[in-house]
Inverse folding.
């Protein structure tokens, strides 16, 4: 047996270590499937997709690699074999936009935390045949904004008039008055535009319920010096600083759609939008059918620039223009009683005679009792309002992204706390499913869709309907907003209003 010298033995030990270091650790991929993942980022050269998955708290599946074998499908392959796949079943990668919902099938590698897409399937029918019904509010070239979405007429298509327009036909959007209602059908293409193949148009008139509700709000809303009274028990001190008030007013005036803004002041459909900045540190804003828009100082402090404030105001104005209040209240069982009470005192202007039901309605409006569908619509239409007023709509996405990140962090903390308490045998019934930080109580979190959902929806609109928009001259104006917030900080804190003791 040959004995190696110490030097030769050392050489073989070093060589063995190098060979061991070069030997790859075996990883067998896991076949994972996720439904309703939200695409956060997917851009050329389309090699990486960033997604948000509700259950993925540690974000291990958030980055997906795309290779030549990755399939982009309109519907899942399921049990079908590859050879039975039809060309119409597939999508091109650029058809997948930020904000879209997709179903994923991936290979997940546990050690390296790598993910490779096998199937990316649209979770909804966004592209293809669709219908749309809503107000026609803006026209840019040959494209109209209907319900906050872009539509264009295919060549030769005529819109048929309905109701008081039943004998009329419209061959272009130029022939229609802004503010009417369109009901169109067509095909949505990759550019996000619906190309209309047929549709109808009808005039929209305010009805008696709309006017009664507006009158009820005017009766119940009282301005007394620097106090704004919104029904029984709801009152706020508003900012009387002219510079701050002019700042908010100037934004609001630009946002209101032209077809409403240019109506004569004595026109029955004219809405006199007024903006009140009130002393309240909760993250909130609200609007009323008579055009009163209330912004809390807490909202002004939290946002980063003028464009984000425009996004908030646009959303609230959209609730008014889409008549969400009257649509909700006319469904109430007590609406008939409330409307009769308003009619009975419609000629009286003293606050002591305001019907209790009208006061109750004001309180409900203040806490924003809207459906998720209405909130999403207000976000979508509000985005169009701020864009047409010259503001950068991407700042609406930035606002909800910031709030979504705060929300997600708080949600993780509460879920971890619940799990620990369960392990300790404690009851968790009293712990809210969703955390509400003290500064966010009585806020937009109370009834609106989650900040994450709103960010996803706005992000999706930006990547489709606004994909070709030129934002080079869009208003952001961070410096002036900082100056306004600084001015607000210099104001002395308001003295708390103590309730009168009962004798």
């Amino acid at each position: 047996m040959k004995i190696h010298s110490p030097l030769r033995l050392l050489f073989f030990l070093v060589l063995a270590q190098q060979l061991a270091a070069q030997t790859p650790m075996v990883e067998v991929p896991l076949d994972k499937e996720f439904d309703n993942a939200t695409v956060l980022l997917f851009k050329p050269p389309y090699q990486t997709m960033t997604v948000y998955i509700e259950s993925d708290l540690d974000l291990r599946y958030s980055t997906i690699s795309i290779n030549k074998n990755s399939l982009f499908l309109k519907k899942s392959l399921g049990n079908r074999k590859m050879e039975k796949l039809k060309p119409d079943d597939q999508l091109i990668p650029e058809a997948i936009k930020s904000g879209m919902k997709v179903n994923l099938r991936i290979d997940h590698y546990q050690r390296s935390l790598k993910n490779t897409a096998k199937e990316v399937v649209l979770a909804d029918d966004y592209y293809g045949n669709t219908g749309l019904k809503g107000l026609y509010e803006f026209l840019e070239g040959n494209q109209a904004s209907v319900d906050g979405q872009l539509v264009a007429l295919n060549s030769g298509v005529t819109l048929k008039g309905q109701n008081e327009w039943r004998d009329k036909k419209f061959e272009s959007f130029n022939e229609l008055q802004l503010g009417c209602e369109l009901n169109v059908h067509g095909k949505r293409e990759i550019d996000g535009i619906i190309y209309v193949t047929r549709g109808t148009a009808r005039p929209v008139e305010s009805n008696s319920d709309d006017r009664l509700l507006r009158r009820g709000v005017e009766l119940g809303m009282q301005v007394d010096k620097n106090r704004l009274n919104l029904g029984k028990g709801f009152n706020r001190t508003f900012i009387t600083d002219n510079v701050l008030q002019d700042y908010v007013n100037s934004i609001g005036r630009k946002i209101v759609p032209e077809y409403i803004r240019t109506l004569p002041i004595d026109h029955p459909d004219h809405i006199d939008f007024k903006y009140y900045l009130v002393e309240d540190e909760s993250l909130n804003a609200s609007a009323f059918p008579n055009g009163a828009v209330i912004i809390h100082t807490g909202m002004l402090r939290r946002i980063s620039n003028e464009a984000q404030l425009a996004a908030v105001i646009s959303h609230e104005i959209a609730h008014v223009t889409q008549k969400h209040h009257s649509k909700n209240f006319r469904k109430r069982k007590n609406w008939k009683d409330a409307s009769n009470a308003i009619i009975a005192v419609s000629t009286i202007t003293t606050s002591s005679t305001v019907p209790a039901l009208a006061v109750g309605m004001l309180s409900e409006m203040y806490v924003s009792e809207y459906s998720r569908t209405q909130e999403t619509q207000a976000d979508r239409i509000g985005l169009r309002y701020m864009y047409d007023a010259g503001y950068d709509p991407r700042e609406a996405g930035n606002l909800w992204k910031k709030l979504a990140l705060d929300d997600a962090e708080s949600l993780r903390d509460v879920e971890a706390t619940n799990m620990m308490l369960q392990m300790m045998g404690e009851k968790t019934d009293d712990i809210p499913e969703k955390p509400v930080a003290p500064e966010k109580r009585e806020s937009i979190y109370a009834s609106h869709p989650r900040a994450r959902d709103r960010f996803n929806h706005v992000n999706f609109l930006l990547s489709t309907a606004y994909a070709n928009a030129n934002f080079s001259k869009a208003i952001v104006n961070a410096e002036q907003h900082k100056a306004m917030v600084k001015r607000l900080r210099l104001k002395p804190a308001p003295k708390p209003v103590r309730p009168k003791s009962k004798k």
In short: The two ends are 110 Å apart (CA to CA). The domain at 128-202 is CATH 2.40.50 (OB fold (Dihydrolipoamide Acetyltransferase, E2P)). Residues 410-415, 425-443, 496-503 have pLDDT under 50 and may be disordered.
